[in-house]
Amino acid sequence: MPELSRRRALTAAAALATTAGTLSAITPASAAGHHDSPGTFDEVYKGRRIQGRPAGGSGHHHHGAGYAVFVDGVELHVMRNADGSWISVVSHYDPVATPRAAARAAVDELQGAPLLPFPAN
């Protein structure tokens, strides 16, 4: 087996650096897909009407990446985390995959109690 020369070591290091640079350039493009706004939904879940849609220019500051969720017509404040998961003001410590899942988790947590309006700052 040939000995590792300085030239071979530098060539291998350059190849690794090029591969790492290519992978880091590809990764953000594929990960950027989680910033797309989820689709609209409107359903009855456990007797409660839950809705979700892209938020319009209502003047409210939405942390949910421009997405609004409602339970029985009352806005459920949602927020999208950096990893793409969603949380709500009702189930803040239980991240879920979609705003629909956040609405369902809120209905589960409310156990029939009405969702009270959350004052916007």
Strand content: 15-25%
Helix content: 25-40%
* Mean pLDDT over all positions: 79
- N- and C-termini, Cα separation: 70 Å
- Tell me the total number of β-strands: 6
Largest sheet: 4 strands, antiparallel
Low-confidence stretches: 22-34
Q: Give the ordered list of helices and strands.
A: HEEEEEEH
Concise description?
With 121 residues, the protein is an alpha+beta fold. It is 31% helix and 21% strand.
Give the tags.
2 helices; 121 residues; alpha+beta; four-stranded antiparallel β-sheet; rod-shaped
Give structural notes.
The protein is α+β, with helices and mostly antiparallel strands and 121 residues long. It is 31% helix and 21% strand. The chain has two helices and six strands; from the N terminus they run αββββββα. The chain has helices at 6-31, 99-110, and strands spanning 41-45, 48-54, 67-71, 74-76, 78-80, 86-88. The chain has a four-stranded antiparallel beta sheet, covered by helices on one side. Strand 1 and strand 2 form a beta hairpin. The chain is rod-shaped, with a radius of gyration of 23 Å. Mean pLDDT is 79; it is low at 22-34.
Write the layout of secondary structure elements.
Blueprint: H1 6-31, E1 41-45, E2 48-54, E3 67-71, E4 74-76, E5 78-80, E6 86-88, H2 99-110
Antiparallel strand pairs: 1-2, 2-3, 3-4, 5-6
